[in-house]
Amino acid sequence: MPSRALVEEQEKVTWLYGLLDAARARAEGSERIEAGGGGGFQQRVDRETAVHEKEKKLAQYAAVEHGLCFGRIDRKDDTLYIGRIGLRDEEGDPALIDWRAPAARPFYTATAADPEKLVRRRHLHTRGRKVVDLDDEVFDLEAMRPGDRASLVGEAALLASLRRGRTGRMSDVVATIQAEQDEVVRAGFQGILVVQGGPGTGKTVAALHRAAYLLYTYRETLSRRGVLIVGPNPTFLRYIERVLPGLGETDVALCPLGTLYPGVHATATETPEAEAVKGDGRMAERLEEALKARQRVPDEDVTFEADGMPVTLTSKAALRAREHARNVRAPHNVQRRVFVHDVLAALAEDQLERMERETDEPLQRLLEEGGLSKELQELLKEPSRLREDHDLELAKETLWDDPEVRRLIDSLWPELTPERFLNDLYADPEALRHIGCPELRRAPGSPWTVADVPLLDEAAELLGVDDSADKAAERREEQRRREEERYARGVLQISGLTEVDAGMLAERQREERGPVTAAERLADREWAYGHVIVDEAQELSSMAWRAVMRRVPAKSMTIVGDLAQTGSAAGARDWAEMLEPFVGDRWRELRLLVNYRTPGAIMAVAEDVLASVDPHAVAPRSVREEGDPPKAVRMDALDGLPGLVEAELERIGEGRLAVITSRARRQEVTAALPDAPAEVTPEALDQPVVILTAAESKGLEFDAVVLVDPDGIREESPNGGHDLYVAITRATRRLTVIHSGDLPPELHRLVREGSRPFDETSHLLNSPENARCPRAATDRLEAGEGTGRESG
Ligand SMILES: Nc1ncnc2c1ncn2[C@@H]1O[C@H](COP(=O)(O)OP(=O)(O)OP(=O)(O)O)[C@@H](O)[C@H]1O
C-alpha cells in the first residue's frame, strides 16, 4: 500500500505530465495553424522559422519525458517542484521550475549547515510516469507540518544512483548534482574556468551539465556561435554522448582530439618520444622554419625554354621576389601570389629584352642608312621605349600558362596544403634535420596520428589559403544578393506588403536555408565557438592547446582534468604553465574533492599508487565505503583469465567489466578472451567485457575491473604510475589485479588470493557468492568453467 506522501506526489506528477502533454499538443497544433494560414510571402517566411522552432521544442519535450520532475523544495511558506524543463499551469503560473533557473538552486546547494531557508528537500524517483519512491532530507524538523513528519522515506538519492549498475553510457545526474559540482555548473560564462579534481569526482558530468546550463542561461549567444566539447577519443565521446540530449540539448558539437582538424580522422598513436616532440610548443617555430625552407632561391641563374624562347631567371631576381613576398604579412600561400607576380615580371622582362636585342641589329642598320625622321631616329636609339605596358602583361600571362614556368615556380615556392606540407616534411630526412627533429621520419603515406592533428592545424595557419578565387565568388554572391533583393521587392509590390524592407526579406530568405548545425561548425576550421569545454584536459599537449584556443577567440572555456592522471608524454604538469602562453594568469580554478565512483577500499590502493609517484598529491575522498575488498591474483600465464572474468561477470550481474592491461600483454589478453571485441571501437563499450590499455580507459568506468600486468603498465609510459592510478580508479564495485612475479609493493593492500601461482579453481570456491551458494560453484567447475579449458 503506497504511503500518503507517495499518493500525493503521484497526483502532482500526473498533473505535471498533463501540462507537458498540453504543451506538446500546442506545439504540434501550431504547425497546423501555420500551415492553414495565409499564403502571403511574409507568412511563408515566418512559417518556415516556426516549423524549425517547433521541431526543436518537440525534441526537447521528448527528451524530458523520462524523469520530468525529480525534486521538490519546501520553505516555510511555499513549495517548488524542480524538473528537467520549466512548465506553467493554465493560469500561467510556474508549475515546474527548470533545474537551471536561479530559483532551483537551493535544491542543489542547501546543506544542514546552511539550509538556505529550506525546510525539506525531496527527491522523487519515477519509473515512466509513475512515482516509485521518495527520499527526504529535512533541514528544519520543527518547521514541518505535523502530517509531513511521517512522510520521510527512502535512502539518500545520491547513493541509490551511485549503486546502479553501469550500462556503458554515462547518464545525467540532474537530480543529484552536489553543491561543489553546482558551483562548477553555474560558474560565470566569461573567461577560462579550470576544474581540477581527482578520479570520479564528477568533472565530466559537471562539465556536461554546465554546457546545458550555459545554453539555457545564454541561449541567444550560444545557439548562434555554438558549444564545442573536446574529448580524448571517439570511445570516450560515445560514452558521454547521451547526457546532453537527455537534458534536452541536442545542438552541441562533440569532437575527439584526433578529428579537430576537419577531414582527418586520426586514431593512431605515437611512441612517447615522438609524442613529446610533436606536442612541444617549440614545434610551432620549427614548422615555420621548415616552411621557410620550402621557399627556395636557385643557387645559379636558371635558363630554360618557354613559349619557344629561352628565358632566364637570375638568382638575384628570385631572391628579390622572395624577400618581397616574405615582407608581406600574410601566410605562405597568399605570399606566393607576390612571389609569382615578381618572378613572372622578371621572366617577362628578360624575354622582352631578348626580343629587343634580336630586333636591335636591323634597326641599327636602318639608322646607319639614314633618311629617317628625327623623332624616329630618337626612338630607335632606345628601343625599350617602343615597348608598352600591355606587352609586359601579355608576356606574363603567356609565361604563366607555360608548364615549364609553373614547374619552376612550384619548385621555388610551392602552393601547399597542410597535409602535403607535413607528409613531405616527415619523408625528408634533410628537412627534419634542418629543424632538429630527425626522429620524426616516417614512410610516406603513413596514417595520421592524434599528435599530427595539432600540427596540421598549425600548418593550416602558416599556409593559409589563396582566397582570390573565393573573393571572386563572393563578388558574384553579392551580385546575386542584389538580384534577390530586386526580386523580393517585386514580390512585395505584388502582395501589397510594402512595409517590410526588401533587403531584410532577402536576408531572411538566406537564413531560412537553416541555422548552422553542429556538424557544419565542425567542418569549418575557422568557426569561432561561443564556449569550448575540454575534457581530460591534462592530456593535451602545448600544440593541441594552440589548436583548441583557435576555436574560441573569446576565450570562454571550461577545462576539466586531473594533473595526477596525466599519461601523455606531452601532457600538462601544471595548469598555470600550460595556460600562461594563451591567457597569462587570467583564469580561475575550482576543485572537486569527493569521489563518487570508486569505493573507499579500492581508493586506498589507488592512494598508495599515487603516493609512490607523488608523495604530496592528495586523492579525493570516496563517498562510498561499501563494496568487496580488492584482490590480487598471481597468474604467470593467462589461462585462468577467462574463468576469472566469467566469475566477475556473474558477481556484477547486468553491469560492465573491463580488462585493463599493459600494451605489451594486450595481444595475450585478447587471445585469452576471444569473445571480447578485439579492437577498441566506440561500440565496444556496449559489450559486457571490453579490453583496454590504461590510456584507453581514461574517463571511463566499469562495475568490475580486472587489471593485468601492473608492472608493465607502470613501466611502459613516462607517467606509468599515473596510468596505474587511472586504471585502478575505473572500478565502481570490484577490482582484481593479476600479476606475475611479486606483487608491486604499492599494491600491498590488495587481498592476496593464494601466495602460490594462481589456483584456477580457488577463486570460484572462495568467492562470497559461492559461499552462499556452493552448489552453483561446483556445477560450474564440473562444466569446466573458470579453468580456461573446454571441459573438465
Ligand atoms: N552528483 C552526482 N550524482 C550522481 N552520480 C554522480 C554525481 N557526480 C558524479 N557522479 C557519477 O560518478 C561517476 C564519475 O563521474 P565522472 O566520470 O564525471 O568523474 P570524473 O571526475 O570525470 O572522473 P575521471 O577523472 O576519473 O574521468 C559517474 O558515474 C557519474 O555519473
From TrEMBL:
PROSITE patterns recorded: UVRD_HELICASE_ATP_BIND
Region entry Disordered, spans: 758-792
Positions with biased composition (Basic and acidic residues): 777-792
Domain UvrD-like helicase ATP-binding: 176-599
Domain of life where this protein originates: Bacteria
Alphabetized UniProt keyword annotations: ATP-binding, Helicase, Hydrolase, Nucleotide-binding
Entries under InterPro entries matching the protein: DNA_helicase_UvrD/REP (IPR000212), P-loop_NTPase (IPR027417), UvrD-like_ATP-bd (IPR014016), UvrD-like_helicase_C (IPR027785)
Pfam families per the UniProt record, alphabetical: UvrD_C_2
Keyword Cytoplasm: no
Residues given in the record as ATP binding sites: 197-204
Protein name per its UniProtKB record: AAA family ATPase
Organism: Actinocorallia aurantiaca
